[in-house]
Amino acid sequence: MDKSLEQLTELYKSWSGTIPSRVDKLPGAGSNRQYFRMTAADGSSVIGAIGTSRDEDHAFIYLAKHFAQRQLPVPHVLAASDDELCYLQTDLGNTSLFDALRGGREAGGRYNEAERILLERTIRELPDLQIRGARGLDFDNCYPQPEFNEDSVLFDLNYFKYCFLKATELDFHELKLEANFRMFAKDLASEPSESFLYRDFQARNVMLDADGNPYFIDFQGGRKGPFYYDLASFLWQASAKYPDRLRQRLIYEYYQSLKNYIEVPNERHFVNRLSLFVLFRTLQVLGAYGFRGYFERKQHFIDSIPPAMDNLRALLKVDSGVFPYPYMMDMLRRLTEMPQFAPKKDAVVGRADGLKTTDHDIYKANPLDGPATFSKYDGKGPLVVTVYSFSYRKGIPQDESGNGGGYVFDCRSTHNPGRYEPYKKLTGLDEPVIRFLEDDGEILDFLKPVYTLADHHVQRYIQRGFTHLMFCFGCTGGQHRSVYSAQHLAEHISEKFGVEVHVIHREQNISQTFPARSAGDKDS
């Protein structure tokens, strides 16, 4: 049993007085946390969580306890380890709002009345969490920062620039765009707010009880900030395909509910401010889709780009007086007019995702290798990939398999966040370091050929029936750049090939296993 899972089981035992009769790992989400459903002999269950960031887990535990004290619909933290890297919370079941809305989503945004009622019920509850939940909250416990501000906006706008805009090869004037970015950031951060900004408010982070009542989860990234952000995040989620009429109905429901908590701005001011945050959120998600799709080759994010571009195209029809950033808006218009982003009338073979590269057929086997051996292993082969991060001061990791196959990559040529005080105690698994590296961009250029090399090598090893392959990333301290690189390559190989992958951050004493998926398994 994994050491972290042993610690979680001991926590369950100390809380309940007995070990669970069954432990089931739940599908992974976007973070490095692992979730387990832990079931007792009588059938009752709780959710156990294992994290890798003490600060992030502390934020969730603090916020969950605070919200529970205010009787808000969130999971209750039942027990936590001393280091807060493991904790137990109430089990809210298996049905998320995202699951409940599948029919309307698959019908291209034609939501039925029952689905619209679920959406209304959820959006009316949001101000309660944002306004009443903020009362008495110590925002210094928030992760990775206590408050939404201009710097955080510029982080996200530069994330869009480096991970999406530059990858499209659109010509633009960097200094003019930067000047408009700064004006945009100042406007977004200008309105004082005492509310809780959920930050990742989306249908996947809302669980429904048997009566359809919403419960909110995964709010550990929240902070003090403007309430418009969450409304924009929820209603303009690209994959949701909410029609304009339904959006207007939900905005009205939110606005009426908000009146119960604060003195609301007049409708014109509210709509104009909301439009600013919709534009910001759209650029923010395009940055994420660009990185996850263009650089990590994750199909879900590539598929999300066209609907996000449709959202952007619709925003550009809004009264130009709402967006007083002429150069930025002109650049965005030219972006939406690029051939790879042109709206498609009918589904055709090919992709409108903006990528400059094309998918290749599976690497063809060499006849001299004999018959491919992977077929007897559910299409995935016996291959196990191990990915290390390490410090050159302590030497290159030993190959414990005895095969001696693999690569060592030196990350020391890239910009080191460890040189700056805010990042010295963090690792490449922490969001501020991730943002620093991705905004800087050097690590992305460094990893592109690594991914290409790894893809060919892993595919070839699968075909030949080899059992082990190792990748190692070294940097000065084995804390920032190497950890980031190792984690992202491990996730990339697991996602793309489904083989068993072990990622070991040697100097951080952190390890994680991505189990092999059989040919019939669906991606998480």
Q: Could you characterize what this model shows?
A:
The structure is a single chain. This protein is of the alpha+beta class and 524 residues long. Helix content is 42%, strand content 13%. It contains 15 helices and 14 strands. The strands form four sheets. The chain has a five-stranded antiparallel β-sheet with strand order 1-2-3-5-4, with helices on both faces. It has a five-stranded mixed β-sheet with strand order 11-12-10-13-14, with helices on one face. It has a two-stranded antiparallel sheet with strand order 6-9. Helix 6 (150-165) runs antiparallel to helix 7 (174-188). The longest helix has 29 residues, at 267-295. The two termini are 22 Å apart. The model is unreliable at 346-380 (pLDDT under 50).
Task: Produce a short descriptive summary.
With 524 residues, the protein is of the alpha+beta class. It has helices spanning 3-16, 54-69, 97-100, 102-106, 113-132, 150-165, 174-188, 228-235, 244-258, 267-295, 299-315, 326-336, 431-440, 442-464, 481-497; strands at 22-25, 34-39, 45-50, 77-80, 86-90, 196-197, 206-208, 214-216, 223-224, 384-391, 406-410, 468-475, 500-505, 510-514.
